[in-house]
Write a structure and sequence with these properties.
Leucine-rich repeat, LRR (right-handed beta-alpha superhelix), 6-stranded mixed sheet, 4 helices, alpha/beta, 294 residues
Length: 294
C-alpha cells in the first residue's frame, strides 16, 4: 500500500505541474557540485515551481542535498527526488511555503534538523522505512499537514518534530518507537488521540496533548493517550492528567492499515486516475493519427 501511496503522490506531482512546464522551466533550477565520485545539490537559482533532480549528474550519482539548499524557496511547489539520494541536510526545505507534497526515496537514511519546518502548504509526506530518527523541528509548523505514518524503523521523534502542525489529525506511530522528544507533538490542536507503543520508554515534557494559552500551556480538552496497560504511555497520561485508554498494538496496526487505504487526500487519487485516463487517450489519438496517415 505504501508503494501505491508513493506512486499516487508522484503521479499527482507530475499532473499538477505539467501545464506549467515550458522549455525554460525544464532548464535545471538547481546548483550542484561534484565531490569525489558523487554529486551534491547545494542550492537553486531563479524562482522554480517544479524541480526534478536526476539520479546522475556528469555521470556521478546524486547522493546528497546540502544544508539549506532550498531554504526559503517560496516559489517551489513540487520536487522530484532521485532514488540514489541518501542524505537531506538540515533546513534544506525550510520555509518552502508553496511546497505541496514530498516523497522521500527509500535509500535516504538521514534528514537534518528543521528540514521541512515552515512548509505551510505541505499536505502529504511519504517517509521511507530506512529512517531511524525524525530530527528536531523536522516538520514543525507544517500547518496544512493532515496525517503522517512514521517509518517502520523509526526509534525516535525528536524535540518539536511535529510541533504546531495544527491540521494534523492522524498519526501512525508503529510499534518500535523508543522516544518522543519534548514538545514533539505540541500544539497539534486537531489531534484527538495518539497511540504510544510500550517500546517508547522516554516520553518528553509536553510531548503530546498540550496546547498553548495566553499564560503558557495546558492539556488539550478530551485528548486521549492510547497504549498498553502498565506502559510508559499510561504513566505519561496519569502524570499529565490526560485520558488513557488501553489499546493493543494489533488494534493500532488495523487502524494504520485503514489510514493507508483512506488517508490519502482525494485529490491525489483523482490525479492518479485522471493521469492514467489521459495516457490512454493520448495512445488512442496516436493510433488514430497513424491510421489516417496510411
Amino acid at each position: 500500500m505504501k508503494k501505491l501511496f508513493t506512486a499516487v503522490l508522484a503521479a499527482a506531482a507530475l499532473l499538477c505541474t505539467f501545464p506549467k512546464i515550458t522549455a525554460k522551466a525544464q532548464e535545471p533550477a538547481y546548483i550542484y557540485t561534484i565531490i569525489g565520485s558523487e554529486a551534491t545539490v547545494i542550492g537553486f537559482s531563479g524562482e522554480p515551481s517544479y524541480i526534478q533532480i536526476p539520479e546522475t549528474l556528469e555521470g556521478c550519482p546524486v547522493t546528497e542535498i546540502r544544508d539549506n539548499a532550498f531554504c526559503e524557496c517560496s516559489s517551489l511547489k513540487q520536487i522530484s527526488l532521485p532514488d540514489t539520494l541518501t542524505k537531506i541536510g538540515h533546513h534544506c526545505f525550510y520555509a518552502c511555503t508553496s511546497l505541496e507534497c514530498v516523497v522521500i526515496p527509500d535509500n535516504v537514511t538521514q534528514i537534518g534538523d528543521g528540514c521541512f519546518c515552515g512548509c505551510t502548504s505541505l499536505t502529504a509526506v511519504s517517509l521511507p522505512d530506512s529512517l531511524s530518527s525524525l530530527p528536531h523541528s523536522c516538520f514543525r509548523a507544517c500547518t496544512a499537514l493532515r496525517e503522517i505514518t512514521l517509518p517502520a524503523e523509526a526509534l525516535a521523534v525528536e524535540d518539536y518534530c511535529f510541533s504546531a502542525c495544527t491540521s494534523l489529525s492522524k498519526v501512525n506511530t508503529g510499534d518500535r518507537l523508543r522516544s518522543l522528544g519534548d514538545c514533539s507533538f505540541y500544539m497539534c490542536s486537531s489531534l484527538e488521540s495518539l497511540y504510544i507503543p510500550p517500546s517508547a520508554e522516554d516520553i518528553g515534557s509536553f510531548a503530546v496533548g498540550y496546547v498553548p494559552t495566553e499564560k503558557g500551556s495546558q492539556t488539550k480538552e478530551g485528548f486521549t493517550v492510547l497504549g498498553e496497560k502498565g506502559s510508559p504511555a499510561e504513566d505519561y497520561a496519569r502524570e499529565n492528567d490526560l485520558v488513557f485508554v488501553k489499546t493493543s498494538g494489533a488494534v493500532q496496526a488495523m487502524a494504520a492499515a485503514q489510514l493507508s487505504r483512506k488517508g490519502v487526500p482525494y485529490f491525489y487519487w483523482f490525479a492518479a486516475v485522471w493521469g492514467a485516463f489521459a495516457a490512454v487517450l493520448a495512445l488512442l489519438l496516436l493510433r488514430f493519427i497513424h491510421q489516417r496517415s496510411k
